[in-house]
Hints:
The structure holds two protein chains of two kinds.
Chain A: H1 17-50, H2 78-110, H3 116-130, H4 134-149, E1 164-166, E2 169-172, E3 174-176, H5 179-207, H6 213-231, E4 235-237, E5 240-242, E6 245-247, E7 250-252, H7 254-281, H8 284-292, H9 297-327, H10 339-348, H11 353-382
Antiparallel strand pairs in A: 1-2, 2-7, 3-4, 5-6
Helix pairs in contact in A: 2-7, 2-9, 2-10, 3-7, 4-7, 5-6, 7-9, 8-9, 9-11, 10-11
Chain B: H1 2-45, H2 49-56, E1 59-63, E2 66-67, E3 71-73, E4 79-80, H3 82-95, E5 101-105, H4 111-117, E6 122-123, H5 131-135, E7 139-141, E8 146-155, E9 170-174, H6 178-190, E10 195-199, H7 202-211, E11 216-220, H8 221-229, E12 238-240, E13 247-250, E14 253-255, H9 259-278, H10 285-291, H11 295-300, E15 305-307, E16 310-312, H12 324-331, H13 335-342
Parallel strand pairs in B: 1-5, 1-6, 9-10, 9-11
Antiparallel strand pairs in B: 2-3, 3-4, 7-14, 8-11, 8-12, 8-13, 15-16
Helix pairs in contact in B: 3-9, 3-12, 9-12
Amino acid sequence: MSSLPSTPAKVPLWRDIRVLRWAFQLLVVAGVFALIFWLYNNYQVNISKSQIQTDLTFLDNPASFTIPGSDFDQSQPVRDALVLGFFNTLRVALVGILLATVLGTLIGIARLSRNFLLRTVAAAYVEVVRNLPLLLLLTFMNLAVVLQTFPRIDEAWLPLDLFVISNRGLALPWFEGSGWVLLGLIATSLIALWATVKIRNTQSDKTGTPSYGLRIGVLIAIAILIAGWMLLDFTWTLPFVEGRGTVGGLRLDPSFFALLVALVVYTSSHIAEIVRGSILAVPKGQGEAADAIALSPGQKMRLVILPQAFRVAMPALGNQYLNLIKNSSLGATISYFELTQVAQITVGNGSPAVPAFTLTLLVYLFISLITSLVVNYFNRKLALVER
Amino acid sequence: MKKSMIAVAAVAASALFLSGCATTETTEETTSAATQSTTSTETAASVSLLESVKAAGVVRCGTRDALPGFAVLDDSGEHVGFDSDFCKAIAAAVLGDATAVEMVDLETADRFTALQSGSVDVLVRNTTWTATRDGSEAATFLQPNFYDGQGMMVASDSGYDSVGDMNGAIVCVSKGTTTEGNAALESSRLGLNWEVRSFDDTDLILEAFIAGQCDGWSSDVSQLTGFRSAYPEGASALSILPEVFSKEPLAPAVLDGDTAWAQAVNWAILATIQAEEFGITSANVDQIASSTEDVSILRFLGQEIESADGSAVLDPSLGLPTDFAYQVVKQVGNYGEIFDRHLAPLGLERGVNALWTDGGILYAPPYR
Lengths: 387, 368
């Protein structure tokens, strides 16, 4: 019988796997940093030869341009212009994400419909739009639809006498009064709605009578809105054409409209496919069980299928939202003053290119990271807890 | 099992180690090469673009491809226009061959970045000379080849007779130009509340203007004249309002810090103006060179001048060949010829761009 081996010999440092692992990782990291440092050094040397600024003092220079749709004056600093551009990007991104999700979900569900016409139209929409480049779609929206199909301002369409549609924009009826107060009013009515539903539901759980929480809540919310509207002196303003512009109401910049529609159409076709895939990923047994307990098709979709489908769809949807945010930078090609347009103009007016565009990139990174955080939060909340 | 795992780990580790070694070696090499290259680029800075252009045998000229009169592409894809001719004049002066030029089309918004990065040697792109561009864009501007001003173009049936009528109008401009700033300034000065929309490309402005989205198109008067002549519905459908609201001296530009190159390009431009002052054209330059007695013309054309001590040719040590002016006039023409060839057909008058002897402000320093 051979003797058991004695305690293993001590492994020398250069053969010790734990040391080696750390050593290689450190070497590779050092290599990457050395490369970045070398590139940055080159940039510094080249720039110092030509006396171009590399710091952020350009942010204090006067902008020398105006931004349509705002009170921005051309003597205000570049910093203010970039902030305005940032808010314009947010505006188109938020509205775009909302509309694209709604439209995409509807089309995704329509593709699975039993109705032949609905199914075919939805399939055609998705297949056509998904295969077009966004820039092309945007150029088409701008040139063919907004510029050439929409009429000139002197021949503007006035549907229902409420809207003014021309190639200078879309004018909607809007309220006259403080926006913040209105927001507060809407918030109050929504809280009242939620409270009513909660109270009626708990009462209904105790006594067994139907709650009708939603119906009563909606009535109360509407009552609060109307009362607040009249008491706080809000009025409607209707837009009408005067000279070469519109007076009154809210005017949507035609570039904003073209960009929004292009983004929504494009992203919704992708979202439709994601939603369709996620609905098909819900186990078939769930749908059959829902039928077995006599849920209507609408209830089945709303209560059983969609909640489970969204759990699957959430990561992919988050990706589409990030794409939409980044694609909004194409607004620069049609003179919508979002962040990229403002950055391009300031660089053209003499701001140093590398700091300005690096700043813009960082802002987009910031927006995207916040969106990812929000999506991941919802992802985690919806995730199935596995034992 | 354990042994083979350790063996695999060792092989993988050595592979990584060697590649890690290689990256550190190359990064060490590249950092030392970087210090070497920085010293060599620092010494290269004292080697002028003039030498490197002569060595390369081609002048890279930053220009554009769709401005009627100044630079357009003809049927064979060649650049034709006022600015293009000046690019060719620079090539004729420095290299002796007007065709030794590479035209690089640039967007308005990144024309200066191209100059700063060295993608082009000279920018001849109807660019306005301003203090900010001299400073923060690190550009050196040379003899303006066209003194212009900013104007406003509107549809003839719009009812506008002057800029002051355009209250609340939508004005379209090109991105990253002096026009943008001037339009904003003019709007606030006259209290007109314009909405200024800026586009990358003049094609986009044209589309918006045709569709009626823009009330006015503001740009240099020479540009507006060019676009008006090429307007699809005819030039009479547009009118250029009488007000000119800024000075726009359009001048070629080179990068700061290279005096030899700047002076060489400058004298190439000045040669065209001086030639017109002497009455030398591409048609009569040979005849004048061989038969004139005028010493200043002989000097200018780099011809031998007989004197008591023998014959000599003037070489002012600009780094240019002594007969550069002759080549420029022979291969491209004098200023008047270039103007008449490209800008007169658009309807532009010489105006302030005439010679100083004709009431204009084009005045070349003496070549001696």
